[in-house]
User: Which sequence fits this backbone?
């Protein structure tokens, strides 16, 4: 009896020390409701991501520095690849007038692999025309990558595919 | 000695538990493991696109081969912005196979996508993200290989049952200079 108790305690200890495997952190066969809930959660992260870029917020809660993984990278619509620091520098240098910026819609969860979620959306970039009006300047299909890090969804990067004008 | 079997059971319980994602990611950018994984994924990329030693003279053979590699959740964003699932891509590439073979009846290597400069960008557990520059070529009226377009491609791989498999891609067209 004494040995059973010792073995039980040791096995519990071993299980507590070993973190849960990635596959167990997120179900790969999710119900429609679970998918919808996760899409909503990721879209909220995405909106904070866009706001951090627009507000040029590089540190603190909901900033680019906090939300983006260290290995964050983007492929920009011209094919340029930028890392986290380069992207933050670009955002800080840019001129952001109210009403301009990136406006994503229709985020769709496409795949889940362990603690990584892959999603797509349609993003419109709005800018200012010669008359000072806010107008759409670019439409894109975007592959957005999210990582669940210490229980929180963070941003791993994106591939921004420009949609040619019709 | 009498507690030895208890110790053995303790060690076994640790072994039987699946390895956590964080333990699988025992690499940092640029180190030996990173560079080795980059090579493995570069090779997986060559397989995905049926290039180099994985070239298939018949287009349908390539479609079947890559379909066997793609994970079930595979999807791709084309340079046009269109999003296609694995089923969409297998169907469209199968439909286009006869025309591709007619254009290239002898199966000259190099027609289609040619990935270059693959670079591993990030690894999260059993998911790896990389980028490459892919040059698309066709055969002109004179029978010469010519470049039709180029793309910077986000390539994502998932490790399933010990093998890295293509999980997704986004093809960002590079404007002609």
Assistant:
């Amino acid at each position: 009896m004494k040995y059973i108790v010792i073995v039980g305690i040791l096995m519990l200890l071993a299980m507590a020390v070993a973190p849960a495997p990635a596959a167990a952190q997120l179900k790969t066969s999710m119900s429609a409701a679970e998918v919808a809930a996760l899409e909503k959660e990721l879209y909220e992260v995405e909106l904070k991501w866009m706001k951090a870029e627009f507000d040029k917020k590089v540190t603190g809660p909901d900033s680019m520095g906090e939300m983006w993984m260290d290995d964050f990278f983007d492929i920009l619509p011209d094919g340029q690849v930028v890392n986290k620091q380069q992207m933050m520098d670009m955002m800080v240098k840019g001129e952001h007038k109210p009403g301009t910026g990136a406006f994503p819609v229709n985020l769709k969860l496409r795949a889940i692999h362990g603690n990584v979620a892959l999603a797509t959306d349609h993003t419109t970039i709005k800018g200012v025309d010669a008359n000072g009006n806010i107008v759409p300047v670019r439409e894109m299909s975007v592959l957005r990558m999210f990582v669940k890090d210490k229980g929180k969804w963070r941003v791993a990067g994106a591939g921004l595919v420009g949609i040619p004008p019709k | 000695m009498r507690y030895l079997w208890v110790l053995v059971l303790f060690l076994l319980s640790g072994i039987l538990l699946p390895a956590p994602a964080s333990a699988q990611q025992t690499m940092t950018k640029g180190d030996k493991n990173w560079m080795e994984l980059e090579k493995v994924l570069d090779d997986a990329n060559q397989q995905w696109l049926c290039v180099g030693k994985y070239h298939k003279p018949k287009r349908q053979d390539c479609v079947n081969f890559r379909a066997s590699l793609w994970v079930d959740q595979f999807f791709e964003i084309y340079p046009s912005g269109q999003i296609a699932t694995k089923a969409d891509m297998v169907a469209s590439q199968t439909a286009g196979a006869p025309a591709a073979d007619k254009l290239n009846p002898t199966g000259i290597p190099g027609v289609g996508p040619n990935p270059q400069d693959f670079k591993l960008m990030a690894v999260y557990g059993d998911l790896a993200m990389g980028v490459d520059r892919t040059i698309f070529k066709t055969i002109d009226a004179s029978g010469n290989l010519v470049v039709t377009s180029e793309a910077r491609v986000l390539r994502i791989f998932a490790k399933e049952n010990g093998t890295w498999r293509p999980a997704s891609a986004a093809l960002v067209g590079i404007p002609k200079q």
In short: Residues 14-24 of chain B have pLDDT under 50 and may be disordered. The two ends of chain B are 76 Å apart (CA to CA).
